[in-house]
Amino acid sequence: MSATPRVPVPHHLDEPLPMTLPRLAEMKRLGKPIVMVTAYDYPSAQVAQLAGVDIVLVGDSGAMTVLGYPSTVPVSTEEMLMLASAVRRGLETPLLVGDLPFGSYEASDEQAIATAQRFVKEAGCDAVKLERGGTSVQRARAIVESGIPVMGHVGLTPQTATALGGYRAQGRTASRALQVAEDALALEEAGCFSLVFEAIPAAVAETVVKRLEVPVIGIGAGPATDGQVLVFHDLLGIYDGHAPRFAKHYADLRSLMVAGVAEYAAEVRSGAFPGPEHSYSIDERELAEFRAGLN
Ligand code: KIV
Q1: Digit-coded pLDDT (tens) for 41-82
Q2: Which residue minimizes the CA distance to atom 8 of ligand 1?
Q3: What pLDDT score was predicted for residue 14?
Q4: Is the CB of 218 under 6 A from ligand 1?
Q5: Distance, CA 22 to ligand 1 centroid (Å)?
Q6: Domains along the chain?
């Protein structure tokens, strides 16, 4: 029996398609889980690209994971733009979302639009994210009306963690859960294309997700959301700060990195590095002439 000849698939048809807002909406409709991860520089963006994630967020968590601040509050727009620009250079197909840092969008619609425009024009982001309901709903509406897609973020909103009583799960009483639902519905009504639910009970997330049409990406919000997001440095075990309950570690890169640098240090000290294979040679006569020329 002759085998059916296989038609070679052109390479470009194998490549992932660029992620778009309609494709995300379609993923929700089809029940296809959406994978989002944070990235803060060129190599982490390349890793996210190669791993085939759908959305990359340049999260203000980068304030802590790569800039060493004690919280997300101090990071500036300039710093976030530098991180986002580096991510842009390492990324092709995932949707790139830039996190508007604390203090860069709350004061007025004009401030919010101007900051969002910088993330799009200067860093090449496809969309921006902002935190909270309340006055952020109007800021989200203004940015969307200016033509920039917005992702909302409710539940635990680290930029205002102090007002929430610290880094703790939200929506654990009926009235607080109703507040989370109200914020989420208001952000959807304001035009957000997607929402992040952070650190809320799984049953609350499941109930609210059913009321929403836009895709919901969860972090510490259980399995019923339309997708999941983790912080790059948490999931790979690079960050040594406090890891929340929801931060699953898929690798322990920090130990590998320390071991690698420690081995390098030991080899420099013992003289084992660099070896001949890491050094350049020069023709003997050229060397002799060079040495003679020095006298
Ligand atoms: O800054 C960040 O990394 C985030 C995610 C946790 C959603 O906002």
Answers
A1: 999 999 999 999 999 999 999 999 999 999 999 999 999 999
A2: 59
A3: 59
A4: no
A5: 23
A6: 16-251 (3.20.20.60), 256-294 (no CATH)
pTM check: above 0.70: yes
Ligand 1 pocket, 231 CB below 6 A? yes
Contact between 192 and 214 under an 8 Å Cβ cutoff? The reply is: yes
Give yes or no for residue 4 having a pLDDT over 50: no
Under a CB-based contact definition with an 8 Å cutoff, are residues 149 and 156 in contact? no
Angle between helices 174-189 and 135-145 (to 10 degrees): 20
Q: Separation of 65 CA from ligand 1 center, angstroms?
A: 11
- Active site (annotated) includes residue 198: yes
Choice among 106, 131, 188, 198 that is catalytic: 198
Name the token pair of 35: 């994978």
Instruction: Enter the tokens of residue 131.
Output: 């935190």
Contact criterion met (CB below 8 Å) for 37 and 61: no
**Distance between CA 216 and CA 196 in Å, rounded?**
6
Within the chain, where are the H helices?
Answer: 11-14, 21-30, 42-51, 62-65, 77-90, 109-121, 135-145, 174-189, 202-211, 232-235, 253-270, 284-294
